[in-house]
Specification:
Distance between the termini of chain A: 53 Å
Oligomer: heterodimer
Structural class of chain A: alpha/beta
Largest sheet of chain A: 6 strands, parallel
Number of strands of chain A: 20
Mean pLDDT of chain B: 88
Shape of chain B: elongated
Strand content of chain A: 15-25%
Radius of gyration of chain B: 20 Å
Helix content of chain A: 25-40%
Number of helices of chain B: 5
Mean pLDDT of chain A: 93
Number of helices of chain A: 24
Distance between the termini of chain B: 21 Å
Shape of chain A: globular
Structural class of chain B: alpha+beta
């Protein structure tokens, strides 16, 4: 929230650096210098009263630190997440005190749930008025306590250098996550000689350095003795950069691989051992394989309830080997036979030393047989009785374009379109599928795509988003235009409903569509108003051609796909049920 | 079930807030908490009585906090527990001698006198404190203040001059509770 109203007595701003004769720096300059030292290239934010000294200093660093002015702090936070998730580097977002800071709460919570390295910098009222309900004062460290790995309130410029270094270390080390640094205005303004001899002093924070070899051997023994082994790969594989090691292990052992929503891209889906996504909207053959397997090797996945369904009935025949860098994940949701605390890559390399080749042909064949019966990737989608554009036509066309062109990443939002994207696009590489998983934050995709586009200017960044989620953060189209971002293509799967809620209302609540029908403006017209290209597509035959035109257009674009309104995502595990109890489209339409 | 946890916590701003917030956020009831300086400057030691069905998970969650250096569950170990209570008993001057005699049988002592009341101090197990307080209430209105349980495991004293990151087998804390079941 931009507001220059100051509760604190107005203090003079720091003079420009030309007049700084000594080694003295303002706190704000130290903050900028610290960001440069942490190799930050870009930050996303909005200025306001309590963070103005930082913005004042930022001007001197504009050649090293790019600042992207967003239209809402939530957009800034998600943009930083998109940057982080697509690069593996920490994302940085900036806001002022009070409402600026509270608007960052949603992206911080999202980064917390999805293990995204994020450093959020907020201004705070001057320490002289802290606790006096000063203008735009909010206890943001208190508010973000349960959704950050750690947070700081800095009231002395002397602490800034070490706090910034510590914050980046914590955000990026071990299981990544968000760290918030709240800096009072007087700490930004104070002039000191900075001490860059910064040493880390966090004795209570440890990232596992190796893995327990004994546990690795026990895991290997289980895998060797299994007749129906299965690998469940999560985002930990991607974060650790262990996709190659996963592939080597799978190929050597012949064990089929399931990838969770966030694990998508950790294993190429055209690989003979890839069987797909599990869980609430996973394929029937995948969930059956989980229910039938005798050893389940989970790597960097946390057994979210959207994966397990009713946890007590999950993988009932399996001994579970759980590799995770966060010890608190092991045994949290699922009973584990062997727990291995460590980085996915380190653990996989250790496991490769111990695990011999084996033959899983019979097991693999039974999975493929189930797949042939239950998964109908494209045809199952076509309704013979309609000529309307089905969502699945859109995905078929997008999938084809992605496969042909390459050089892409896809950011999805939350809802039906997200699940269709996970199901219907053939994912290949790590960090090409980015979505809001744990928190399920609608409005994530557009700003996150903007952040990814800044990180990867030579790639084409697709955002796939519903008409509901799009309308939550579409103000960032203005940011995309102002920043000259030319490589964002936003595909709106527009069905005029909050579709996933409507689907549940249809299936579980007697078709009472309470609060779900949704109107919107002409999204193409809106895009044009923001200076982007806009397309509207409502016929099957136009989908492929329009995607081509949008991809070739030298600039960002919005594609409004007007799809059949009541298409559903299948298969579906009803909430609270076992993943063995799936509802398929055939059962509902029969 | 109720567990007695002893944690070493770096004395950073908001550290206890984080610890309690975590327990609250995970839906765990804190029965008592005592908190004060340890033998090491900058490190506090706390005893938390918490109701949890999965104490391993609770301890791992606590260990995720940056400030938490170490957590031990002494529930099934040999340990001693003490709590201090201050009890203000409203009583006429005429009954003071009687009160004094009775509380001294509990090992308590009178540490404050005023025309309206006496203040009794007692340090013992929480159960014994309860007995004494129940008896005190027979004299008249009482106000009680209890410190929360202080627990300490028996065995070797391990001063934490340096934060201890590994057990005596050299395994780091995060691998100690894991491995094969």
């Amino acid at each position: 929230m931009t507001d220059t109203g100051l509760a604190a007595p107005a203090a003079s701003f720091a003079p420009p650096p030309s007049s700084v004769g000594s080694a003295e720096r303002t706190g704000a300059q130290i903050m900028c210098e610290a960001l440069v030292r942490e190799n930050v290239e870009v930050m996303f934010g909005i200025p306001g009263g309590a963070i103005m000294p930082f913005y004042h200093a930022m001007w001197e660093y504009r050649d090293q630190l790019r600042h992207v002015l967003c239209r809402h702090e939530q957009g800034a936070g998600h943009a930083a997440e998109g940057y982080a998730r697509s690069t593996g580097k920490p994302g940085v977002c900036v806001a002022t005190s009070g409402p600026g800071a509270t608007n960052l709460v949603t992206p911080i919570a999202n980064a917390w749930m999805d293990s995204t390295p994020l450093v959020a910098i907020t201004g705070q009222v001057s320490s002289a008025v802290l606790g006096k309900d000063a203008f735009q004062e909010t206890d943001i460290t208190g508010i973000t306590l349960p959704i950050t790995k750690h947070n700081y309130r800095v009231t002395r410029a002397e602490d800034l250098a070490s706090v910034f270094h510590e914050a980046f270390h914590i955000a990026c080390t071990g299981r990544p996550g968000p760290v918030l640094i709240d800096v009072t205005k007087d700490a930004q303004q104070a002039r000191i000689v900075p001490d860059w001899g910064v040493t880390l002093n966090v004795p209570g924070f440890h990232a596992p350095a190796g893995v327990d070899q004994r546990a690795i051997r026990e895991a290997a023994i289980l895998l060797v003795g299994a007749s129906k082994p299965l690998i469940l790969a999560g985002q930990g594989v991607i974060i650790a950069g262990a996709a190659d090691e996963l592939r080597t292990l799978a190929e050597r052992t012949g064990i089929p691989v399931v990838t969770t929503l966030h694990g998508i891209g950790a294993f190429p889906e055209d690989h003979p051992l890839s069987i797909g996504m599990p869980g609430m909207h996973g394929w029937v053959h995948v969930n059956r394989a989980i229910q039938e397997c005798d050893v389940l090797l989970s790597i960097g996945a946390r057994f979210d309830d959207r994966v397990t369904g009713k946890a007590s009935t999950f993988a009932p025949r399996a001994k579970v080997i759980h590799i995770d860098i966060d010890p608190s994940e092991i045994g949290k949701n699922i009973k584990v036979t062997v727990g291995i605390v460590g980085d996915a890559r380190t653990a996989l390399l250790a496991l490769l030393e111990e695990t011999p080749a084996r033959d899983t042909a019979v097991w693999m064949r039974s999975i493929r047989d189930a797949q042939a019966t239950h998964q109908h990737r494209q045809p199952y989608l076509r309704r013979p009785d309609t000529t309307e554009l089905m969502p699945h036509d859109v995905y078929a066309a997008i999938n084809c374009a992605l496969a042909t062109r390459g050089g892409y990443r896809v950011i999805t939002d939350v809802g039906q379109h997200q699940m269709w994207a996970a199901q219907l696009i053939e994912w290949q590489r790590p960090r090409t599928h980015i979505t809001s998983g744990g928190a399920g934050t609608m409005g994530f995709a557009v700003p996150a795509a903007m952040g990814a586009a800044i990180a990867h200017p030579d790639e084409t960044i697709w955002a796939i988003v519903g008409d509901g989620g799009f309308q939550m953060t579409n103000q960032e189209l203005a940011t995309i235009h102002q920043e000259g971002i030319r490589n964002v293509k936003i595909a709106i799967v527009n069905n005029g409903y909050l579709g996933m809620v409507r689907q549940w209302q249809q299936l579980f609540e007697g078709k009472r569509y309470s609060g779900t029908p949704l109107s919107g403006p002409s999204f193409a017209g809106l895009a044009e108003a923001y200076g982007l290209r806009g397309f509207t597509i409502d016929r099957i035959e136009d989908a492929t051609e329009t995607i081509r035109a949008a991809w070739d257009h030298d600039g960002s674009a919005v594609l409004d796909f007007r799809v059949e309104r009541e298409a559903n995502v299948f298969p579906l595990v009803p909430p609270g049920s076992s993943i063995g109890e799936m509802i398929t489209r055939e059962e509902v339409t029969a | 079930m109720r567990h007695t946890l002893i944690a070493l916590v770096e004395d950073r701003p908001g550290a206890m807030n984080r610890l309690l917030g975590l327990l609250r956020g995970r839906g765990l009831a804190v029965h008592s908490i005592a908190f004060g300086e340890s033998e090491t400057p900058g490190v506090k030691r706390t005893t938390v009585l918490v109701d949890t069905e999965n104490v391993d998970q609770t301890m791992k969650q606590l260990n995720r906090l940056i400030e938490v250096l170490d957590v031990t569950d002494v529930t099934h170990s040999q340990f001693v527990v003490r709590e201090t209570a201050l009890v203000k008993i409203q009583a006429a001057e005429t009954r003071r001698a009687e009160i004094k005699a009775i509380v001294e049988r509990f090992g308590a002592r009178v540490i404050g006198n005023s025309p309206q009341s006496v203040v009794v101090e007692m340090t013992d197990t929480p159960a014994r404190l309860g007995e004494m307080i129940a008896r005190a209430k027979t004299f008249g209105a009482c106000e009680t203040m209890r410190s929360g349980s202080l627990a300490m495991a028996l065995g070797a004293a391990i001063p934490r001059d340096q934060p201890v990151l590994a057990d005596d087998k050299g395994r780091p804390w995060w691998s100690q509770a894991d491995g094969a079941a």
